[in-house]
Specification:
By secondary structure, this protein is α+β, with helices and mostly antiparallel strands. The chain is built from eleven helices and ten strands. A seven-stranded antiparallel sheet has the order 1-2-3-9-4-7-10.
């Protein structure tokens, strides 16, 4: 397997295999490089099909994801035009799209990258990203950095079955970037804290009525903004999230206690036993008593 050790960096080009192709994502190359200020770019030698010409750029036959964790520079593609790159930027390279990029000579930059092919990778990139907007500001995100580092560590060790594992890591990288791309406002510390504290309060006070509109206004925002931030963070609208918490607790109490159904409904914040039973059956496919009969642990003889 071709491997190149370079100063302050690592790169590896991975031959494809039938097994890797069956997983739908075949990692073809990956690595990291620290480009010092004043250094020529790109450094080192790379296979011909990956060579980046500073003037004419290049066209790849695969996707690549490049994450800049330090420094700044510039990116250009024939679909997006020129975009400045800063610390925390991610830029995406698409098959058949000519592009070029480089760090500023005064700052250099630190880059992590991973290249991949395959039907599943192509589908995910088509569904969630666009060659017209290939630059995303992800910020300095510890989880994303760790994912890139893990893929390099696995490629270095070539442990048994590493190809499908780094394919899965690549999907995680895409998922993390997509999450981070959904708005810097959501990642504002004050908003993150508000959503986290709201979720904890809901979990600890299920029997109590909770007014999301009033809660949003008390925290200086409209309900529509609060709902959007909440759904971006949890994947569910506030009322759906609350109902999900109630159903989880109800299932636990029905299966593991001898409490009356009416009492369980009250402890989970339902004022109507009839409404609770109807919602419970819609969500689980069982009546509350039917769920207890099916899922309750057997009584020791």
């Amino acid at each position: 397997m071709p491997e190149k050790q370079i100063q302050n960096g690592f790169s590896r080009y991975i031959p494809s295999s039938d097994e890797a192709r069956r997983w739908g994502i075949c990692v073809t190359d990956l690595g990291y490089t620290d480009i010092a200020p004043g250094t020529n770019y790109p450094p080192g030698q790379h296979p011909e099909k990956y060579t980046l010409n500073r003037k004419t750029g290049r066209v790849l036959q695969e996707h690549q994801i490049v994450y800049i964790t330090c420094g700044k520079g510039v990116f250009w593609s024939e679909r997006s035009g020129t975009t400045p790159i800063r610390t925390g930027s991610v830029f995406l390279l698409f098959p058949g799209v000519r592009h070029r990029y480089r760090p500023h000579r005064k700052t250099g930059w630190s880059e992590h990258w991973i290249g991949f092919a395959g039907d599943q990778g192509k589908k995910l990139m088509r569904e969630f990203f666009s060659p017209d907007k290939p630059v995303i500001h992800a910020g300095i995100d510890a989880d994303l950095q760790n994912l890139f580092r893990d893929t390099c560590t696995l490629a270095k060790s070539e442990s048994f079955g590493f190809r499908p594992v780094i394919a899965a890591k690549t999907m995680e990288i895409m998922a993390r970037i997509h999450t981070l791309s959904r708005g810097e406002v959501l990642r504002h510390p004050a908003n993150e804290l508000l959503i986290r504290e709201t979720c904890l309060h809901l979990k600890d006070h299920l029997p109590q009525h909770f007014d999301f509109n009033r809660h949003a206004l008390e925290n200086g925002m409209s309900y529509s903004s609060f709902r959007r931030f909440f759904k971006e963070s949890t994947g569910l609208a506030p009322n759906q999230y609350l109902l999900d918490l109630k159903m989880r607790k109800a299932c636990t109490l029905i299966a593991n206690t001898s409490l009356q159904i009416q009492q369980i409904a009250e402890e989970c914040g339902f004022t109507s036993n009839f409404y609770f039973s109807r919602i419970f059956k819609l969500r689980t496919g069982f009546s509350p008593l039917g769920y207890r009969s099916f899922f309750a642990p057997p009584v020791d003889l």
